[in-house]
Amino acid sequence: EVTRLNRNFNTNLGIEYFLNEQSSLTASVFYRYGQDEDITTNQSERFKNNILAEETLRKEWENEEDNRYQFALNYMNKLGENGHQLTADFQFGKRDQVKTGFINEDVVFNIDNEDTRFLQEQVDERPDRTEYLFQADYVLPIGEESQFEAGYRGDFNNQITDYELRTDPMTPGVYEINLGLSNVFDYTENINAIYTQYGSKFGKFSYLLGLRLENTNLKGLIDSRLSDEELVEEFGFPIDTDFDNNYLGLFPTVNLIYELGERENITLGYNRRINRPRGWFINPFPSRSSRTNVFQGNPNLRPAFANAFDLGYLKRWDKLTFTSSVYYQLEEDSFERIEEFTGAVTPGDEIPITRTIPVNLSTN
Q1: pLDDT averaged over the chain?
Q2: pLDDT tens string 187-203
Q3: Can you point out the beta strands (E) in 168-204?
């Protein structure tokens, strides 16, 4: 059972300045402040030989403050008539978060009347994210019925997450840093792409062909208080604390339109897409949602690629428009979460600890 209270404030200020009749410069600043409070209650019942042996109640309190701002600059120059145009964009974004949590678990019922005390936990997490975007786009009309476009786009993101877990193993209320789970994760995602497209029209038939070459670079570095050997001893499985992965992809786009009449057409489209794993799915350092469940990201997780097709029909009347479409997408190497036993058990009651990890597994 989860109860959430989200409070957000957003503001945006922008200005556009016309350098001359053909060109302009636009600048904007965006700011957001958020404050969230979550309370999660988790009731667990454990059975042995189909008999209720233990019941526990776990409560998690989490507070989060989120400060986010973004600065954007856009330049546009209409170099001539008939759509001849050059645009350039720059964005800088910063996001600072502070998450604090308190976790408490109590035994409601125990068949053996054992006096079991679970560790209380305090969590401090500070994600610090920086984002840059650079993009330039050039449009060149060719004759009256054709157009060529080319451009570059670069997305550069870095997030440093300082995660600290404290528990009270000896004395209730006296907390010590958990060296096994506390860490600093430095994650970088850089995407560079060049693209081009060409469109033309012949009578009732028109087409638009595009091609994008894209490189994705995912890098991660974990600063842990434990060595690689101590991490294996702590969790029972290896952890990749330093990884650097590169993926190169080619993405074509085809759009065809045939005009059945002045107000009626049929369209056929195809494009190749990429689904990149998020940082949480890549972070190999384990995080647990309870004493018996551990989630671990997979730094070897590859992006999933998909082929998408759509067929559409459009008909216009004076006061009515009818549109319809059929859409199909096939994604290979989709992300799925698998669960496995780590071989470790919880201290005291010896409940097996399960690890959840995402892998490239399915077809959707």
Answers
A1: 90
A2: 999 999 999 999 999 88
A3: 176-177, 183-202
